[in-house]
Specification:
The complex is a heterodimer of chains A (446) and B (193). By secondary structure, chain A is α/β, with parallel strands linked by helices. Chain A has 19 helices and eleven strands. Classes of the chains: A alpha/beta (446), B alpha+beta (193). The complex binds flavin mononucleotide and FE2/S2 (inorganic) cluster.
Chain lengths: 446, 193
């Protein structure tokens, strides 16, 4: 069993409540930070820990924090990104539902390090039932003197509020989130300026993922250097993986970064293998936005090295033969899964979620969806396949925010690795029409 | 796309008298006070959620105008937001809005079959409401419950690992719950909302 830092207390009865959490060492990170450390010392520990953002981009949290503009007297804000809408990702929801105080503790320590006196948790509207859980935790922490004015007589004051979104994937993108928090449509902003200098209300702002911020408490308790000893290379610490799809034991798992993808998929303590003893066909490793990996590249890289659950190893081979850890949303496909249908499904998602600001994304995602629809429904033409590649190339890199890239990569990678399957759809429309939803194995003989 | 090309059947002056009840107003004021002076517009999304709940599950122009006035912003600032976010409904909805996830993991773990089954059972298509106004069927994108696929949400309740049997019992249960409520209801609003 790997070491657990985030989920170690999850099975303690009553851990949802303040008292049990506190009696099990909870809020000692706040005590340690506010009583014995300066904000810069907290920042230093986070830098030493090497923790990278868990929301998808993997940007080092300590570095992001050090970019925060401290030169003005404007208020500073910390925003916790709980918009979690990336298909395949459900770890933040799990964490907030089971261990709300762990997040609140992380928010207090982080806000202290950043000199922020207000912190917002921007939570996706669909998680309305979590708002009550979080607000109760905030209320309890406030009652016990960990939130509010002059916390633990340190002179530091903080308010934390929960702010619901209303159903828009794009609001997970940090500048769209800020727009949404200001009561506007979720249209991403052009960067620069970055939120670190001009974020919420044009004030210096840090946006971090739920898991990133929940990790800050444990980092302060164990020290940055200790934390950095877990994992390998630039993938330090533990990571929550949301595992779903055709596996025996879907769920949220905390792993020490560096275990192999094969172990993660097949060991009983994790996914427990493929459902129905079928064969593996492909995985999406980090949420729907990352390139899909075919079976022959899942366990070994193109260089024949063991593929590990780390930022570096999953990215090994670039877009040709690698993928990304992203948000840690692992979707597993068995031999029967239809890659064309899945790609169409993803494209429909991005088309629906495009905010509509940038033409390449607004139009391109729609075109990809339509072309994929017709291939999937037996009306495709052979040139459609290259047309899709062409559209994806024209979206990638040409938009204000990375949603365009996120829409392009799954399509381009599916065609790169499963071109035969696309061609089969075009060449055998009569067979495709008889296909039972996603079930392709019976028909597809390459 | 979150666009405005879609023709929304916006309900116009259907509820001119709309206003928040006293206890709701307390809550609303408290929410507005979270945001800095001059930034009250930030409260728009949370307040629209409340307004929608108070207006039988959808937003009409009157309601949006009321919210605009309350926050001291232009009506258009509310309309543009209400049309952007998929959780704000501009049309009347059934008492129970079924939102079935049709994305990635749910799609490959039986969600497509569940959709067929619900359509058959309720005898409606996606986006439609049953004649008795009890159920509206919608498909939505990933609900953040992929490990428990297929999943759906009915109003604020999550249902996981769906199969045909579960759908049967969920729908039957909701139906009888609604009938009980209706029998007990005393006011017009309670009966027909
Ligand atoms: C289209 C899009 C959607 C995103 N959705 C989320 C999300 O749901 N949750 C999240 O934490 N980050 C999301 N991100 C990443 C954020 O922009 C941002 O990088 C992140 O919140 C930073 O936190 P971190 O550094 O702790 O990862 C999204 C980015 C894009 C482009
Ligand atoms: S794919 Fe259905 S909840 Fe994520």
């Amino acid at each position: 069993m790997g070491r657990k830092i985030l989920l170690d207390k999850i099975d303690i009865p009553g851990i949802l409540g303040f008292d049990v959490y506190r009696n099990n060492g909870g809020y000692s990170a706040v005590e340690k930070a506010l009583k014995t450390m300066s904000p810069d010392q907290v920042l230093d520990e986070v830098k030493k820990s090497g923790i990278r953002g868990r929301g998808g981009a993997g940007f080092p949290a300590g570095m992001k924090w050090s970019f925060l503009d401290r030169s003005t007297n404007n208020p500073r804000y910390l925003i916790c990104n709980a918009d979690e809408s990336e298909p395949g990702t459900f770890k933040d929801r799990y964490l907030m539902e089971k261990l709300p105080h762990l997040l609140i503790e992380g928010l207090i320590v982080s806000s202290y390090a950043l000199g922020a006196n207000t912190c917002f948790i921007y939570i996706r509207g669909e998680f309305k039932y979590l708002v009550g859980i979080l607000e109760k935790a905030i209320f309890e922490a406030r009652k016990n003197g960990f939130i509010g004015k002059n916390i633990l007589s340190s002179g530091y004051s903080l308010d934390i509020y929960v702010h619901p979104g209303a159903g828009a994937y794009i609001c997970g993108e940090e500048t769209a989130l800020i727009e949404s928090l200001e009561g506007k449509r979720g249209n991403p902003r052009i960067k620069p300026p970055f939120p670190a200098s001009k974020g919420l209300y044009q004030c210096p702002t840090v946006v971090n993922n739920v898991e990133t911020l929940a990790s800050i408490g444990p980092i302060i308790i164990m020290g940055g250097e200790e934390y950095a000893k877990i994992g390998t290379g630039k993938s330090t610490g533990t990571k929550l993986i949301s595992a779903s799809g055709h596996i025996n034991q879907p769920g949220v798992y905390e792993i020490e970064m560096g275990i192999s993808v094969e172990d993660f998929i097949y060991l009983d303590e994790y996914c427990g293998g493929i459902r129905g003893s079928k064969k593996l066909k492909a995985i999406v490793a980090g949420g729907s936005s990352v390139p899909v990996l075919p079976e022959n590249l899942v366990f070994k890289t193109a260089k024949n090295e063991t593929r590990l659950m780390t930022y570096e190893s999953l990215a090994e081979g670039g877009f040709e033969s690698g993928t990304m850890l992203g948000s840690g949303g692992l979707i597993v496909y068995d031999e029967d899964a239809c890659m064309v249908r899945n790609t169409w499904n993803f494209s429909r998602f991005y088309h629906h979620e495009s905010c509509g600001q940038c033409s390449p994304c607004r139009e391109g995602t729609g075109w990809m969806e339509k072309v994929l629809y017709r291939i999937e429904h037996g009306q495709g033409r052979i040139e459609d396949i290259d047309l899709l590649v062409n559209i994806s190339k024209n979206i990638e890199g040409n938009t204000i925010c990375p949603l365009g890239d996120a829409a392009a990569w799954p399509v381009a990678s599916a065609i790169r690795h499963f071109r035969e399957e696309f061609e089969f759809h075009v060449k055998h429309p009569e067979k495709i029409k008889n296909k039972d939803h996603g079930n392709i194995q019976k028909l597809f003989v390459p | 796309m979150h666009n405005n090309q879609i023709q929304h059947k916006i309900h116009f002056r259907e509820n001119k008298e709309f206003h928040f009840r006293e206890e709701i107003m307390e809550k609303v004021k408290q929410i507005i006070s979270r945001y800095p002076e001059g930034k009250q517009k930030s409260a728009l999304l949370p307040i629209l959620h409340i307004a929608q709940e108070e207006n039988c599950g959808h937003l009409s122009v009157d309601v949006m105008d009321y919210v605009a006035q309350l926050l001291g912003i232009q009506s258009i600032e509310v309309y543009e937001v209400a049309t952007f976010y998929s959780q704000f409904y501009l049309e009347k909805q059934g008492k129970y809005v079924i939102e079935l996830c049709k994305t990635a993991s749910c799609a490959i773990c039986g969600g497509e079959d569940i959709l067929d089954f619900i359509k058959e059972k309720l005898n409606i298509q996606e986006g439609e409401t049953t004649d008795d106004k009890l159920f509206t069927l919608k498909t939505v994108e990933c609900l953040g419950g992929c490990g428990y696929a297929p999943v759906m949400q009915v109003n604020t309740e999550f249902y996981e690992f769906l199969d045909r049997q579960k759908i049967d019992s969920i729908i039957d249960e909701l139906r009888s719950k609604a009938n009980d409520e209706k029998a007990k209801a005393s006011t017009w609003a309670e009966k027909f909302c």
